[in-house]
Amino acid sequence: MREITAANRTLGLHAQALTATPGNGTPAALLRLLRETSARNRLLFGQQDFPFYGCDWAYRPGCCDVKACCGDYPAVLGCDLGEIELGTGHNLDGVPFDTMRREIVRQYERGGLTTVSWHPRNPLTGGDAWDVSDPGTVRSVLPGGRNHAKFLGWVDLAADFLNSLSTNDGTTVPVLFRPWHEHTGSWFWWGQRLCSTAEYEALWKMTVERMRDRGVRMLTVYSPNPCVTGLEYLERYPGDAWVDILGLDAYHSSDAGAFVTRLGASLGIMDQIARDPRKPYAVSETGMEGIPRADWWTGVLMQGIGEQRPAYVLVWRNALQTLKPGHFYAPYPGQVSQADFNRFYASPRTLFAADAANAFQ
């Protein structure tokens, strides 16, 4: 387990038992936690789908590849609502929504937080979220469009799920809701070449307004791809009233130097944008598939983050290797980057679930 060092105590961090009473029970408390994390130059670590499956296991309560490496759970759990609109009882990666609900509540009870993305199917063509065959999809779900009523029904199903995230004492768990991500690319039906700026902004506002009307306890996360200017980052920004957290989805493919430069530049732009409205910002998705570099965590990821202050960083999922070989973004015991990940974990800058339970109180 993580050693509680004198440096940790000096910084006011309190590593608690996993049963600690969480201090993030409202969206306002979550926002304070993220702001304080950034202000103190700390970094919450997260991973997509970590309690559901790993590289060689699936649906074993308490299991987690990250925990098997370092002794603690990620502070941020990433989940996806994709295909909740189909009513099949599981998402696009086969995760049962009942299991997802249970694990989100467990994450809250251990003091962590959850971010929720959504890859809905294409409401115009019937294809998946990556079906970009018809550039009229977004237009079809806006007011006056032929799929408007159907799509609002989909949003209501997502809202119903988020409103069902309750503890035994009836507390509704707040989440970070991250819709319509990576929109500055064009691989989703809401992407840049698939709709106009006005249509994208209308989609965002319509979705968030519907969620708010349904009483969903959430903060919203806006997450485009890497950018080179502030104007590029904000080109489809729906406005401060509609966004609580600035995000960035940035993956490392082959050139480490280019990734470090691109990540650092994008975060620098976000840092400038975030100052006036005092919004937290985050690396909402990142990673290197298969993590072939032994020093990726301290030698690449943290080099890219540098002196910037994102509140959290979330790497993508560890797929079951019998189903998707090589598709993993966090180490498992014996993986080549495990030792460096443990150095990343031991840094006083990084926060995992035990740290987040009562951080900065």
Features:
361 residues; alpha/beta; 12 helices
Task: Give a description of the structure.
With 361 residues, the protein is α/β, with parallel strands linked by helices. Helices cover 34% and strands 11% of the residues. The protein is built from twelve helices and ten strands. Strands 1, 2, 3, 4, 5, 6, 7, 8, 9 and 10 form a ten-stranded parallel β-sheet that branches. It is globular.
Q: Roughly what percent helix?
A: 25-40%
Distance between the termini: 22 Å
Unreliable stretches: 1-22
- Helix/sheet category: alpha/beta
Percent strand equals 5-15%
Overall mean pLDDT stands at 92
List the helices and strands and how they pair.
Layout: H1 6-10, H2 27-39, E1 43-48, H3 65-70, E2 76-80, H4 97-109, E3 113-117, H5 137-141, H6 148-163, E4 175-178, H7 197-213, E5 218-222, H8 230-233, E6 245-246, E7 249-251, H9 256-275, E8 283-287, H10 296-305, E9 312-315, H11 338-346, E10 350-351, H12 353-356
Parallel strand pairs: 1-2, 1-9, 1-10, 2-3, 3-4, 4-5, 5-6, 7-8, 8-9
Helix pairs in contact: 9-10, 10-11
How would you summarize this macromolecular structure in one to three sentences?
The chain is globular, with a radius of gyration of 19 Å. By secondary structure, the protein is of the alpha/beta class.
